Amino acid sequence: MFARIVPGVIATIVLLATFAVAADQLISDKSFDEGLILNAEHPAIEYFKTAAEDPVAHLDRALAIGKAKLEFKPGPLGYLPDVLKKLGVNADSQVLVFSKTSFQAAKIGPRTPRALFYNDNVMIGSVQNGDVLEFAALDPRQGYVFYTLDLHQSDDPRFVRRDVCLQCHQGPATLGVPGIMVGSVFPDAGGMPASRAGNPVTDHRTSFQERWGGWYVSGTNGGMVHRGNAVARDPRAPDVLESQGTQNLLSLAKKFDAMNYLSGNSDIVALMTLEHQTRMTNLMVRGAWDERMGQHERIAPDVEAMLTYMLFADEAKLYDPVEGVSTFTKTFAERGPRDKRGRSLREFDLKTRMFKYPLSYMIYSEAFDAMPQAVRERVYHRLYDVLSGKDQDPKFGRLTAEDRKAILEILRDTKPGLPPYYAL
User: Fold this and answer.
1) pLDDT in tens, 135-179
2) Please, are residues 206 and 317 in contact by the beta-carbon 8 Å criterion?
3) Considering Cα of 183, then 188, then 191, then 192, what sign does the dihedral take?
4) Which residues of 275-296 are buried (b: 16+ CB within 10 A; e: fewer)?
5) Fewer Cβ neighbours under 10 Å: the N or C end of the chain?
């Protein structure tokens, strides 16, 4: 089922139904109900009434009292460069989506893709000749909060919160909490997704050949094949993409005019990292909400699903090396932190798996630290069981003894607030 396009959409695909990743790649965590939608108006949550504490909300308050100003650059970029700078988002995180899956869909297509930029807690969407910039910002307790910023120059530019976005951004695709998701569609020649074809939500568990339909992808991936850079031109076969000349593209110059963009790249490594981050964030918020709402019987399966994902236990294997074309691979790794031996959870592998040390860097996030103590303690306990070798469950079989030892050592040096038993 493909949902109708409604206002407030920033993610790649508009989905209200649960889409399964390839069954042979998933490790099931019993009792974890991905389709359950949590009550955002619950007294312990009050998503719509609670003042947001995310980076965009903080910047907007600074604008309101004159402690910050946004610089407007004449031309198609407008406020975008300064917004990126003030929110700490690198331009090399740019990824491009040309499917019509935004409320500004009429202005998006293969010749005018939408540019997305992100860091650990903010995503920014920019549409050529659009009316607004689109924002999804992570409140550590509440999940993602959605905003727009008018693209036209103003003496008093302000961000507008858009809770209407939860019509699509709180559902099974986001694990029932306000979140974001990456998806893969079958776009026609104009970028319109096929309603009859499968449209999965994708993350690091998704097989490579199912990823990035409706996206531009720049970089190399050897003999592996993805759905990016392609359209379905025959309306009688909406799920058949024209794949000739779509793989291992170092330049997208023949696809669209990059003059009005910050770059012409849609880096493959940035795409893979974004995919991982979306579900990881949703899992943390889901566990936090369940605990705050008193749904204690759901905490154990929540934590097990989180642990399985954050340790990349069900990651789709890379059969050929992957290499990006922008500086993203370098600058992302440089953000650290690093242990005494110079190792970091942000270091990429990109030969057989995404990261050299397979534990999610989102363990350093404010969202992780903002989870209720009972949830964090359970995560830490289960994580230690696996890393110490006490838990030898086959689902963690990809983690070698060397992997477990290295990750444990990195955490000891870089993660404040670890339980005392981690020092043993």
Assistant:
1) 999 999 999 999 999 999 999 999 999 999 999 899 999 999 999
2) no
3) negative
4) bbbbbbbbbbbbbbbbbbeeee
5) C
SS (H, E, C) 76-131: CCECHHHHHHHHCCCHHHCEEECCCCCCCHHHCECCECEEEEECCCEEEEECCCCC
Distances (CA, A) of 316 to 190, 208, 266, 272, 364: 30, 7, 21, 11, 24
pLDDT (average), residues 38-58:
97
Question: CA-CA distance, 21 to 244, in Å (whole number)?
Answer: 25
- Sequence-ordered list of residues with C-beta below 8 angstroms from that of 160, at least 6 positions apart, any chain: 147, 148, 149, 150
pLDDT at residue 265 greater than cutoff 80: yes
- Residue 416: pLDDT over 50: yes
Residues found in the chain? 424
Contacts of 69 (CB under 8 A, 6+ apart): 63
